[in-house]
Amino acid sequence: MSIERVFVAGAGLMGHGIAQVHAAAGKQVILYEPELARAEAGRTRIEGNLERAVAKGRLSAEERAAVLGRIRATDDLREVEDADIAIEAVFEDEPVKTELWGELDGRAPGRCIFATNTSSISIDRLAAAIAPGRRPAFVGMHFFSPVPVMPLVELIRGSATEDGTEAAVRALAAELGKQVIVSRDRPGFIVNRILMPLLREAMIAYEEGLGTAEDIDTGARVGLNHPMGPLQLADFIGLDVCLNVMKVLHEGLGDARFAPPAVLERLVAEGHLGQKTGQGFYRYPR
To answer: Are residues 162 and 253 in the same domain?
Structure first.
């Protein structure tokens, strides 16, 4: 199946990046939010990303215009009616995602692949929101932030996902220049199953006063050769996102190693979510 028309639901941190890479690969993209201003804000962020690429000599002005011209913002879910694939990239919250999938199920064409960008929630639980006949075309397609830079896509099959769906998503990822890994449908999948205990342990070390945030992160960067320290990475991901993923892992696996630490819950309760709010384990801009 050739995928040419892409509907991206969610124009935030992940969604606008997903829209950008598809448009850069020559796809026609509809970027959806229930409020048009938010969808247009996502497109504006893409425009800014492309302008910076032009300034750095990575993209010509003509290429920038062509990519941006393939992206249209909308607040109308009926725009999914012509899509070959619908990619959901809304907040990592199961009720929010399932409500959206239920709405898309009634509007998307029968040929449309349904792909969720969830980073931790069960594919089968999300697929339960759509008609049984559609579930063979439902799959996890987990991108990593920033989407235009990170070369990985985590593909997660549900129990009903067909081989043809996996093949189509693999082919699409290759067009985007992404490498694919395949995970079973288990809480956190592969990457977050590995990552969240690392972030949690760094948070506990900080909470216990073992070292400053800078020293903990420097230990990981210099001592472990990580490109970014775990506390800075948590701020970049979003502390609310980290908290939700840890809750999914803890509830799904029943293992105390995944329980959210008190310092994370406190920061989120106080509204300190990392870079996007200007404060987390660090203050921003730094």
So the answer is: no
Give me the domain span that covers residue 25: 5-183
Residues 145 and 248 reside in one and the same domain: no
pTM: 0.93
pLDDT the model gives residue 4: 97
Enclosing H/E stretch for 160: none
Tally of domains in the chain: 2
Is residue 154 annotated as a catalytic residue, yes or no? yes
Q: Which of 33, 79, 88, 154 is catalytic?
A: 154
One of 16, 22, 142, 250 is an active-site residue; which one?
142
Active site annotation includes 79: no
Which residue is catalytic, options 49, 117, 119, 183? 119
Which among 117, 122, 192, 244 is annotated as catalytic? 192
Query: In this model, does residue 1 exceed pLDDT 80?
Result: no
In a domain, 87, yes or no: yes
Query: 282 in a domain, yes or no?
Result: no
Q: Is 226 a catalytic residue?
A: no
Determine the residue type at 151: P
* pLDDT level of residue 286 (50, 70, 90 thresholds): confident
Task: Give residue 2's pLDDT.
Answer: 87
How far from each other are the two terminal CA atoms of the chain, in whole angstroms? 46
How far apart CA 146 and CA 184 sit, in angstroms, is 24
